[in-house]
Structures are given as structure tokens and as C-alpha cells.
Amino acid sequence: MRLRIQHATRYEYDAAPSYLVQRLHLTPVDFDGQRTISWKISAPGMDSSLRHRDGFGNITHLLTVRGHGGPLVVAAEGEVETENRSGVVRGIASVIPDAVFLRHTAATQLNPELTAFLKRFDTRLPTLELAHRIMADIHEAVAYETGSTHAHTTASEAFRDGRGVCQDHAHIMIAVARGLGLPARYVTGYLVTGIGASASAAHAWAEIAVADLGWVGFDAANGQCPTDHYVRIAAGLDAAAVAPVRGFRRGGAGTEQMTVEVRVEIAQQ
After folding, report:
1. For the chain: N or C, fewer Cβ within 10 A?
2. Nearest Cα residue to 4 out of 265, 260, 196
3. Residue 101 to residue 223: CA distance in whole angstroms
4. How far is it, in rounded angstroms, from Cα 30 to Cα 63?
């Protein structure tokens, strides 16, 4: 399947900062089942940005902007060809040992409710079967509700409230998997829901290390493994580690307002 993606992040300031540094995770990585047809990022200073592969295998850009007046827009667009590999991810080079993904972050720390939730799972099961049961139980326990959480909501908070968005489902899946001794990582990307449909926001899910298969994706928000309707962008320990656009600014006064527009659709074949 060929998917067309447009993703724009717009920053508006009361007074424009004199200096900004932005780290971008906006470029898809090619691997078995995913191939980039075309891709372009547009932003002030993009021509002189630094591009590299980080230790997790992600394509990362470091963008420096000086003396830019007015709103700042970072836009990515392109087409990606995908195949349904039942969530199995192969062909991405990474120097990070799987054991690193057993480490909890502030977003994935266990609380008493999540610790009690762990006890329902039988760790003697094969890892793949266990991961599917974790995904199904989280999908049932936590309702998808737009606007119910914010960017800094933790897995424990969303699980306690029984509602969240895809970021929260992914963090909960990761928290539970790590609590059971399974390496798990957070994935950002895109999802289109069907022929003639489009998505209006980026998506997120989890990947779990499975012996003899490698990393396998699990989307607890939708209760399924990623298919050819998904485009994978980047993976890390949690959402903050692989935010599409993240950085800092110096100079300028007042507030910063950020808006994001995403469009994902099935391209003409």
C-alpha cells in the first residue's frame, strides 16, 4: 500500500526568539515491509541541518535557527510504500542492547494499580502470546478518549483513570511489558484507517522484543498489530524521547503556541 503523509508543526510567539534548536524525528526509516518513495522536510535552516542515525536506528535532524521573525513552521511530507508484516520489524540497525528497554522512565513507572494488573499475566506463556494478551487487556481496560489526557500524562495516571489516547495506551503497554521483564519501546508514526479515509493526527504504539522474531509492534489503542496501514517513524524509551519536534529557544518574551496538522491518506496506486 502507498500512503501519502503531510505533517506540519507551527510555532507562534509573542516575540520571536533570537535562537532556536530543534531535534526532528520526522523521517521514516526503510526496513522490511516499509520503503520511502519520496520525503521532504521544509523549515527555516533546514538546508544546513545535521542529519544522522541515532543509536536507536532513527533518522534524526538537528535544526538551528537564528534571527527568524514571525511564526516558525516545520513541515514534512512524502509517500511511503508499506506491506503487512503482522507488526514484525526487521532490517533496522540499532546499537542499543535490548536490555536498555527494560528501564522505566517517568512516563512508564508502575504504581500500585499497574503492579496489581501485572499479576493477571502468566509469564510462562510464549512471549508473543503474552504480548497479545497484554495488548488485549489494556485495550479493554483503557478507553480511547480524545482530549482526556495531555502530553505529560503518565502510564499510571491514564491507567488509573481508565481513559487516554494512543500515547497513553503505548506507555501503559510498555510499563506492563517492562514490569514483566519484556524489553519494550515506544514508536511514533502514522495510521490510516481504510480506503478513502485519512488520519488527522500522528499515531503511537509499542514494540516488544520477541525471541526468534525480533521486535514486534502492538497497538493497544486499536487492539491490533501494525499492518500496511501504518508508517513507522522512530522508536525510543518513551514519547518524550521521540517527539516529532522538540527543542529549546533563547531570547524573545511571552508565550509560545504550538499547533499541529497531520493528514495521512491512501495514495493513488
Report:
1. C
2. 265
3. 22
4. 22
Buried b (16+ CB within 10 A) or exposed e, 188-200: bbbbbeeeeeebe
State the cell numbers at 171.
506507555
- 163-168, long-range: CB < 8 A, 24+ apart: 165/221, 166/203, 166/204, 166/205, 166/219, 166/221, 167/204, 167/239, 168/142
Residue pLDDT tens, the chain, 269 long = 999 999 999 988 887 787 889 999 999 999 999 999 999 999 998 999 999 999 999 999 999 988 777 788 999 999 999 999 999 999 998 889 999 999 999 999 999 999 999 999 999 999 999 999 999 999 999 999 999 999 999 999 999 999 999 999 999 999 999 999 999 999 999 999 876 666 667 999 999 999 999 999 999 999 999 999 999 999 999 999 999 999 887 776 667 788 999 999 998 65
**CB contact at 8 A, 212 and 157:** no
The closest of 245, 260, 248, 258 to 18, measured between CA atoms, is: 248
With b for 16 or more beta-carbon neighbours within 10 A and e for fewer, the 41-75 pattern comes to: bebbbbeebeeeebebbbbbbebebeebeeebebb
In the sheet where 50-53 sits, what is the strand order?
50-53, 59-66, 19-27, 245-250
Gap between the Cα atoms of 162 and 130, Å rounded? 21
Question: Are 230 and 206 a contacting pair, CB within 8 Å?
Answer: no
As to burial, measured by CB atoms within 10 angstroms (0-12 exposed, 13-18 middle, 19+ buried), residue 38 is exposed
